[in-house]
Design a protein that fits this description.
single chain, 373 residues, mainly alpha, three-stranded antiparallel beta sheet, binds acetyl coenzyme *A
C-alpha cells in the first residue's frame, strides 16, 4: 500500500519535464528560462517577460516594439463577445467573466490552421483586460467602453480602462512588476490543468478555460482576494494580532500564507512587498500596511509560516484602486503567458497525462438485481 499522506496532492511528485521555469531549486529560487525573477522584476517590463516565456528568448528592441504593436492591435472585442458579456447576470464573479469570455472567444475565433497557438496566446493576452473591464463598466453603469488603446503595455492598458485616465509612472510600474511575478510558476494547479487538457489534444481555448477554473479557488489564485478581506477586518496592528491569534486557535487557514514548494520564504513576496510599501507611502497609508506587517510577524512567530505572493499583492492592488474582486483576474491576465508556454511545451512533447490510482473501495462482489434490493 502506498503512503497516502505523501501521495495526496501529488506533493513532491515529478510529473514531467519543463524548460520554462524553476521553483524553489536550491541556490536559484524562481527563474524564468534561466533568468532570476528578481532580475526580471528589476530590469524588464512585463511584455519582455511575456515574450521570453512565449518565444523562449528575450526580445531585441525591434522584436519588443513589434510585439507591443501586435498586442495593441488585438485589444478590440468582437461584437458577438460584447453581447455575451452583456448577458452575464449582476453579481457574476469576474473570474467567471474571464472563464466565459475565453470559452466564448474559442467559438467565435476557433483554433485552426490559419489561426495558430501563438496568435491565440497573443490575442488572449491582449484581450483579457478588455473582456474584464468592458464587462465591469457595462455591469456598473451600462457604459459600453471602447477597449482599443495605444497604451504601450498591459499594466497601463488595464489601469487606463479601469480608471479612465493614464496611470502615474509609479502605479504603472508597480502593476507591471506584479504581472511579472505572477507570469509563471512551473507545475502549479492551474498550469498542470492546462497541460492535462492540452495532452488530450483539445484546443488551446479549452486548456486555458480549464486553467482559469483551477486558478479561481482560494487555495490557489483566489488567495489574494481572501488576504485583502482578512486585512480589511482590522483597523490597528493590535486588533490584527488578536484576531489572527483567535483564527489560529480555531485552526483556520490564513490565506496568503504558506506554499507547497517553498519552505522558508516565497521569493516573489520579497519583491512585491517593497512595491506595496512604495504605494503605501504615496497614499500616506497608516493602517493597511501596518496591519499586514503585524499579520506577517505573528504568522512567523506562531506558525513559522511566511507570506506568499498573494499576501502583499493584495494591498498593492488595493492602493491602485483596483476592486478586490479583480485581484484574481489580474493573476489570469499575467499567467496567460506561462500557461501558453506550457501548452506549447506539452504539445511539442506530448503524451496523454493519465496517472493511475490505488484502489481502496470494496472487493469484487456479486451484482444484486434491482428487484432484490
Ligand atoms: N494558514 C494556517 N496554517 C497553514 C497554512 C496557512 N496559510 N498553510 C499551511 N499551514 C499549515 C497546515 O495546516 C499544516 O499544518 P499541520 O501539519 O498541523 O496539519 C502545515 O502547515 C502544512 O500545510 P499543508 O496543508 O500540508 O501544505 P500544502 O502544501 O498542502 O498547502 C497551501 C499549501 C495550499 C498553499 C497552503 O499553505 C494554504 O492553504 N495556504 C493558504 C492559501 C494560499 O495562500 N494560497 C496561495 C498559494 S500561492 C499562489 O497561488 C500564488
Amino acid at each position: 500500500m502506498i503512503d497516502a499522506k505523501n501521495v495526496e496532492g501529488l506533493a513532491g511528485i515529478v510529473a514531467g519535464q519543463t524548460a520554462i521555469s524553476t521553483v524553489g531549486k536550491e541556490g536559484v529560487g524562481l527563474t524564468y528560462r534561466g533568468y532570476s525573477v528578481e532580475d526580471l522584476a528589476r530590469e524588464a517590463t512585463f511584455e519582455e517577460v511575456a515574450y521570453l516565456l512565449i518565444d523562449g528568448a528575450l526580445p531585441s528592441r525591434t522584436q519588443l516594439e513589434d510585439y507591443r504593436h501586435k498586442l495593441m492591435s488585438l485589444r478590440t472585442l468582437p461584437d458577438k463577445l460584447k453581447t455575451v458579456l452583456e448577458q452575464l447576470p449582476a453579481g457574476t464573479h469576474p473570474m467567471d467573466v474571464l472563464r466565459t469570455g475565453c470559452s466564448a472567444l474559442g467559438a467565435f475565433e476557433p483554433e485552426s490552421a490559419a489561426r495558430g497557438q501563438v496568435d491565440i496566446a497573443d490575442r488572449l493576452l491582449a484581450l483579457f483586460p478588455s473582456i474584464l473591464l468592458y464587462w465591469l463598466h457595462f455591469q456598473n453603469n451600462g457604459a459600453r467602453i471602447d477597449t482599443a488603446s495605444d497604451a504601450p503595455g498591459t499594466a497601463w492598458h488595464f489601469l487606463e480602462l479601469l480608471g479612465g485616465e493614464a496611470p502615474s509612472d509609479l502605479d504603472e510600474r508597480a502593476l507591471d512588476v506584479a504581472l511579472i511575478l505572477y507570469a509563471e510558476h512551473e507545475f502549479n494547479a492551474s498550469t498542470f490543468t492546462c497541460r492535462t487538457i492540452a495532452s488530450t489534444l483539445a484546443d488551446f481555448y479549452s486548456a486555458v478555460t480549464g486553467g482559469i477554473g483551477a486558478l479561481r479557488g482560494p487555495l490557489h489564485g483566489g488567495a489574494n482576494e481572501s488576504a485583502m478581506q482578512l486585512m480589511q477586518k482590522f483597523h490597528t496592528p493590535d486588533q490584527a494580532e488578536q484576531g489572527l491569534l483567535e483564527m489560529l486557535a480555531r485552526k483556520d487557514l490564513i490565506m496568503g500564507f504558506g506554499h507547497r514548494v517553498y519552505k522558508s520564504s516565497d521569493p516573489r513576496s520579497e519583491v512585491i512587498k517593497p512595491w506595496a510599501n512604495k504605494l503605501a507611502e504615496a497614499h500616506a497609508d497608516q493602517c493597511l500596511m501596518p496591519v499586514a506587517e503585524r499579520l506577517e510577524a505573528v504568522m512567523r512567530r506562531e506558525k513559522n509560516i511566511f507570506p506568499n505572493l498573494d499576501f502583499y499583492s493584495a494591498p498593492l492592488f488595493h492602493f491602485l484602486d483596483i476592486p478586490t474582486s479583480l485581484f484574481t483576474p489580474l493573476f489570469v491576465i499575467a499567467r496567460i503567458t506561462g500557461w501558453s508556454a506550457h501548452i506549447f511545451e506539452q504539445r511539442a512533447h506530448n503524451r496523454l497525462i493519465r496517472p493511475t490510482a490505488e484502489y481502496i473501495g470494496p472487493p469484487p462482489r456479486p451484482f444484486v438485481p434491482l428487484a432484490k434490493r
